[in-house]
Design brief:
Blueprint (H helix, E strand, L loop, with lengths): L3 H10 L1 H6 L1 E5 L7 H5 L30 E8 L2 H8 L14 E3 L2 E9 L5 E2 L12 E8 L1 E8 L16 E6 L3 E4 L4 E7 L3 E14 L6 H8 L20 E4 L8 E2 L4 E4 L8 E4 L11 E2 L10
Parallel strand pairs: 13-16
Antiparallel strand pairs: 1-2, 2-4, 3-11, 4-11, 5-10, 6-9, 6-11, 7-8, 7-10, 12-15, 14-15
Length: 298
């Protein structure tokens, strides 16, 4: 299995690659830095509350637990990614290593510790804006709690599964979880009272694309991914609510099914983003693709 020491070796060799797309899922962002976690220092967290931002500048991190932290980073196609994958027990699990499976040129790394008496949550329940077939998460050490439920409004290839209650799973070292995060609402947390670091690696993949759509997927595979490139609701948002204004409107992605609209400011009044309908907590926020007022956001 890959270890935290392996991750520290990757950081030592490629510190800029790691730090560039570093994100704190839960914890004091000023203390839980790449250098603090993977360098010579170790993160020290004080008990405080961090509210989720509605301006797209940070993820919803909930309440930080004393001594606990949860962070992640993504590596795109680079020598750093090759070095990290070389330390994995596999670049892809056996079930997803055939000729009809192609992986994107990215990998995500999630890790943290939670010595408290309560689970330490990551970002709020959400779906991801992705077009691939799925993502596999390989737990390398420690444990992680998953809570998922189907998005009944998503574009399922068959009728969406029906679940009266969200499904829960606890993954431990050696476990593999495969999920399409565009179809399933999901959230994760670190179990309470565990001194061992929770560490997992994730990669996206495409299944049996054939000739049709192959070039499009190959182009997508080469696109760099950001670790904080989405904007979502940390709480319920009623229709007609101003969710961001000023420079913060630049963080909103475009969609053919938008739930917000951009209202341009005038005479010193800043532009603002307004919700078009009721938006659930964890739902991605987006602006219309064909709205001329938002063309500058492309």
């Amino acid at each position: 299995m890959m270890t935290m020491d392996d991750l520290r070796a990757v950081y030592k060799a490629f510190p800029e690659d790691v730090a560039q797309r570093w994100n704190v899922e839960n914890g004091d962002a000023g203390a839980v830095t790449a250098e603090a976690v993977l360098g010579k220092k170790r993160p020290g967290c004080s008990k405080r509350r961090r509210a989720g931002a509605g301006d797209g500048t940070a993820k919803g991190r909930g309440e930080q637990t004393e001594g606990g932290w949860y962070a992640s980073f993504v590596l795109n196609k680079s020598d750093a990614l090759d070095a990290a994958l070389a330390r994995m027990p596999f670049e892809a699990p056996r079930a997803l290593s055939g000729s009809r499976v192609r992986h994107t040129s990215n990998a995500w790394f999630f890790f943290g510790q939670n010595p408290s008496r309560e689970p330490l949550r990551g970002r709020p329940e959400h779906t991801d804006r992705v077009s691939h077939s799925g993502t596999w998460h390989a737990q390398q050490s420690g444990a992680k709690l998953w809570r998922v439920r189907p998005d009944e409004n998503a574009s399922w290839p068959s009728p969406a599964p029906r679940c009266r209650e969200p499904l829960s799973a606890r993954v431990e070292a050696g476990d593999l979880l495969i999920i399409n995060t565009a179809l399933w609402y999901h959230e994760t947390s670190l179990p309470q009272g565990t001194g061992e670091a929770s560490f997992s690696v994730a990669r996206d993949f495409h299944l049996d694309l054939g000739e049709a759509g192959g070039s499009e997927a190959e182009e997508e595979d080469s696109v760099d991914m950001d670790n904080c490139n989405d904007t979502w609701a940390t709480d319920e948002i009623p229709a007609g609510t101003v969710v961001a204004q000023g420079d913060a409107v630049m963080s909103f992605p475009l969609s053919d099914q938008p739930n917000c609209v951009l209202e341009n400011g005038s005479r010193g009044t800043p532009s603002r983003v307004v919700s078009l309908r009721h938006i659930r907590a964890g739902e991605s926020l987006s602006l219309p693709q064909n709205d001329s007022s938002s063309l500058h956001l492309r």
